[in-house]
Structures are given as structure tokens and as C-alpha cells.
Design a protein that fits this description.
Number of helices: 14
CATH topology of the largest domain: Aspartate Aminotransferase, domain 2
Structural class: alpha/beta
Radius of gyration: 22 Å
Mean pLDDT: 96
Strand order of the largest sheet: 2-8-7-6-5-3-4
CATH superfamily of the largest domain: Type I PLP-dependent aspartate aminotransferase-like (Major domain)
CATH class of the largest domain: Alpha Beta
Low-confidence stretches: none
Distance between the termini: 57 Å
Number of domains: 2
Helix content: 40-55%
Bound molecules: pyridoxal-5'-phosphate
Amino acid sequence: MTPSSASSSADAAIRARIEQWVRPEIRALNAYHVPPAAGLIKLDAMENPYRWPPAVVEAWLETLRNVALNRYPDPGADALKRELRAFFRVPRGMELLLGNGSDELLQIIALAVAAPGRVALAPQPAFSMYRMISIFTGLDFVGVPLSAADFALDREAMLAEIERRRPALVLLDFPNNPTGGLFEAETVRAVIEKAPGLVVVDEAYQAFSEMTLMDWLHDYPNLLVLRTLSKMGLAGLRLGMLAGRREWIEELDKIRLPYNINVLTQASAAFALRHRAMLEEQAARIRADREILVAALRACRGLAVYPSRANFILFRAPAGRGGEIFTGLRERGVLIKNLDGAGDTLRDCLRVTVGTPEENQAFLTALAAVL
Ligand SMILES: Cc1ncc(COP(=O)(O)O)c(C=O)c1O
């Protein structure tokens, strides 16, 4: 056997084993794709563009000096939870579960309720991990289209599908990614009241929407509220927070792997949360720059620009030009998110994250050149 025929028969053997053992629904998935961004202005991932002032960085480094890397982290992250409770004004009596990003918390929730034939339901489009996590934890995923005209939550369709499919889990991103819109609170209430299982309201973009349903936790025993530090300038730390009734949190905590929040994240997040004014000032700047960017996009001929309560803006390019505009921007050094191809409702749609004023201007200049 030649070396190349030996390696191709090894390849065939691996493929056969994969087909035999990896579940078909996993084989059918595509891994979450993060495009290379080296050398580009990165406006594709809803990151906060701001670092901390040098004095704050110095104080942070000083705190890290005392972190014991040789020890496992505090398994309950109690000190960090105290800071989170105060920072996010978690209603009295509610418990917290922390995750390695809110992604991990979504996975924990799905794992807790998944069983053959059970359903997770979310509007479509929505954060792409809702579908991925549902599928790989073994839930059947049901997507309910948002209203085509304005990407509103379709109350009748949501209630009808909940009635028909009896989902174990309903996932609502509030505001929605990728549209940026904030669903009408009363429609969300109707969904929570109708749902036979858990409803997760994912407030990843709360710093920019300035709207929360956290206070509803007392009213609805099937509600959980999800937050993340990722959009507040701490995406690199990976910290998500789930708030809800003690009974739910105790069940979910059984699935959490021990020590899922590492010592550096615990110390750094607790430090950051003590700098409320700095974090709020960054968020306020992003909200103000979002309005400037929306106005500038609305002034561009041929673009449909959707209202945003998040730190990104969805817009639709002239028919058939979405892909070409995305590529033209990248060639000019600006990376945004191309949603053209992510289903009919998002045809020709592009999503830009609000960056610094200089980054936003570079994006607008490049856009003017490609339009
Ligand atoms: C709605 C929504 N939820 C959760 C996440 C994931 O956040 P994290 O970085 O906390 O995993 C995202 C990320 O884009 C998101 O858009």
C-alpha cells in the first residue's frame, strides 16, 4: 500500500466511525463560525470597543496579584455574586447561577429539560445559539417567524405554536439579535403566561435597551432572566448570569460543572462591577453613537434601517446587493456581519456593531464607496 492510499483508507475508516457514532443531528450542524478579523475594523460581534483608563487597569492588575492560581476557584463564586446582585439590582429572594458566558447557561438549561420528543421554541431570527444548543442537547427546535414587516414578535403565531407544541423551553432575546428590536413587553407576558414550561428572557443587551423584565420574576414562577457581561466591555472574561427562583436554580446547578468560573474571571468581574460609573458611561456613549449611526444609515439611499435598542444595527441593502456590500466593506478594511443567506426574512440584511466614533466613520466612508 502506498502512503497516500494508506492515509485515504484511514480517512474512510474515520468517516465510517463518525457516521456510526456521531448523532446525525450533530453531523448536520455547522460549528459556530467566527470569521478571521486580523487587520480589520471589527464591527461584527457586538463587542464594546472601549478599554479601561490606565489607572483602572493598574488597580485591576494590583487585585490580580492576590489571586491564588494554585487553588480551585470558589465554587459558588459568592463574592462575585454579591457584586452582581447589587450591580444588576436582582430582586430580593431570587437566586443566581453563573456561567462561562451566557452560552453556557443556555446549555445548562437545555440539558436540564431535554428528553426525546421535547421542544425548545424561539422566534426566528434569533440568537443562532438557541437553535444550535437545542439541537445538540437533544431538543426539537421550533422557530416561529417574526412579523415580516417589522420583526415584531408575532403574538398569534407564538401562542398558537406554544399551544400546539407544548415546548419545555421558550427562548426570547430581549432585545433580539440580529434585528436589534425590543419585543413588546405585553406580548412577552402573554408568551410567559401561555408557556407550559420554562421561559428564558435573555437580556444580553440590557445596557443598551435600558429595559428589563427582571421584576417579573416574582410574578411568574416559570420565568428565568439571563444577563451577560460580554456586551459591557468584558467579552473576554466570559461571564453570564441567570436569575430566577431558588427551586429552578438548585436543579440547574446540578448540571453546572464544578469551578466553571475561573479565579481570574471571578476577581476581574468583581473588580469591574465596582466601577459602575465607568461601565455606565461607556454604555451611554455607545447608545448615543448608535443614534448617530442610525441617522447616518437612514440618510444613505436604498437602505432600510431597523430601529435598535441594542449595540448593533440591522439594515437591508438594495435587493440582491447584500453580499456584495459586505465583501466591499471587508475589502476596505471593515468587518461587519453578513446575514444574507441566513433565511428569507434576512435577505440582503447586514448587521453592524456600534464601535468608536472613528470606527463608525470608517464604516460609513467605506459604505458610501461601495453603495
Ligand atoms: C441574545 C444573546 N444572548 C447571549 C449571547 C452570548 O453571550 P455570552 O458572550 O455571554 O455567551 C449573545 C451573543 O451574541 C446574544 O446575542
